[in-house]
Design brief:
Shape: elongated
Keywords: Membrane, Transmembrane, Transmembrane helix
Structural class: mainly alpha
Number of helices: 14
Helix content: over 70%
Distance between the termini: 32 Å
Radius of gyration: 24 Å
Strand order of the largest sheet: 1-2-3
Number of domains: 3
Largest sheet: 3 strands, mixed
Strand content: under 5%
């Protein structure tokens, strides 16, 4: 393994020794990572965000209508708007990048308020024992959103550190000992590797990591984006949708303990059980996934927004039809599509990129948010 450690003074790749060592590690197929500094004030920000959520949650529970039908009509529009805000947040961060700080801050504030309103309404609407899991999930999501904002700042800071003073070419690098510079450049030029050195450094700056898996992926799919940073918020909520939501709905449909051993009960409710099991399996797989594959696994969860859209469509139908549904359509879509998604995550981006026609495009879209071109 090779660890590149940035500093605040100048890019490490502006030094000829560092750039050449990075190139050698790249050529020798080493596992290369860029060190990351811990985010400052991470936990105070996370706790503050969760505290704001808790305060709005409590106020919402106090202000909720006392009649069940009024609560239902009150909570469904909030649920739809919150889902739309989550989808918008994910797409903005995935496709527009992390640099638009004010936009991300506005989305974070809107999302926190909406999540608290929905959680408060749900807590008043559904009082079964599993509802506490939903409240905790939403709190974790708000904390994760605050953490993501700080992580994005650190990622931008790291990018600046790696680019400060670096001209993009090994030829322009410096050395405190001129003889060392001349000897290294002579060795590079003798091997005709000057462009290869520039390429290796550019890859490490852009991706933050280089491993055998990622190099194979890049050869097939083209230039990839940063593979060390991904949205924790989306992961938390997608795990919640895959585990907590179906578990709560399943619990709502259990009237007696004998239902749990009834074949008819499971024939009717298999999508909820399947979604919960698949969500747990994916959480375990994600936790054990190597770091060079985690970004692909996390960013591919954007595809899970199809399930969220289906859920919102069902909610809109509920709003206009005037009756409560248990998301049978959404649960079925999720249960049927999850195995394919799990297989995609398990095999990794390099394997997917080898799929004819669609593989490289899919990997590039997931990791960079852009189509090959």
């Amino acid at each position: 393994h090779v660890l590149a450690v940035p500093n605040e003074k100048s890019s490490i790749y502006s030094r000829v020794w560092c750039a050449y060592e990075a190139f050698l590690a790249y050529e020798w197929d080493k596992h290369i990572e860029t060190a990351e500094s811990p985010s400052r004030h991470m936990w105070p920000r996370v706790i503050r965000s969760m505290a704001v959520y808790s305060a709005i949650l409590g106020a919402t529970m106090q202000a909720a209508p006392s009649i069940y039908e009024a609560r239902l009509n009150w909570i469904i529009p909030q649920f739809v708007f919150t889902g739309a805000t989550l989808v918008l947040t994910v797409f903005v961060r995935h496709f527009l990048g992390r640099e638009r700080e004010r936009l991300h801050l506005a989305l974070r504030a809107t999302f926190t308020v909406q999540v608290a309103l929905v959680a408060g309404g749900l807590a008043c609407l559904i009082t079964n024992a599993t509802m506490w899991m939903v409240l905790v999930l939403y709190a974790c999501g708000c904390g994760a959103l605050a953490a993501d904002q700080l992580r994005a700042k650190e990622a931008a800071k790291q990018a600046r550190q790696l680019q400060t003073g670096f001209e993009g070419r090994i030829r322009d690098a410096q050395s405190s000992v001129q003889a060392d510079y001349e000897r290294i450049m002579a060795e590079i030029q003798a091997g005709g590797s000057e462009e290869a050195v520039d390429h290796a450094v550019e890859v490490l700056i852009r991706m933050g990591m280089s491993t055998r898996e990622l190099r194979q992926t890049a050869r097939l799919a083209g230039n990839l984006g940063n593979v060390t940073h991904w949205d924790l918020t989306h992961v938390v909520f997608m795990f919640g949708c895959g585990i907590v939501a179906p578990a709560c709905l399943l619990n709502l449909r259990v009237w007696y303990a004998s239902d749990l051993v009834s074949a008819d009960f499971w024939n009717l409710n298999w999508p909820y059980a399947a979604c919960t099991a698949e969500g747990i399996i994916f959480a375990v797989i994600f936790a054990r996934t190597p770091r060079d594959r985690q970004a692909f696994a996390a960013k591919s969860l954007v595809a899970g927004n199809v399930v969220l859209v289906a859920a919102m469509v069902e909610l809109i139908h509920i709003l206009f039809a005037g009756f409560f549904s248990n998301w049978e359509v959404t649960a079925t879509i999720s249960a049927v599509s999850a195995p394919l998604f799990l297989a995609t995550v398990v095999v990794g981006p390099a394997f997917i990129a080898r799929t004819p026609l669609v593989g490289p495009t899919l990997v590039r879209l997931v990791l960079t948010g852009r189509l090959p071109g």
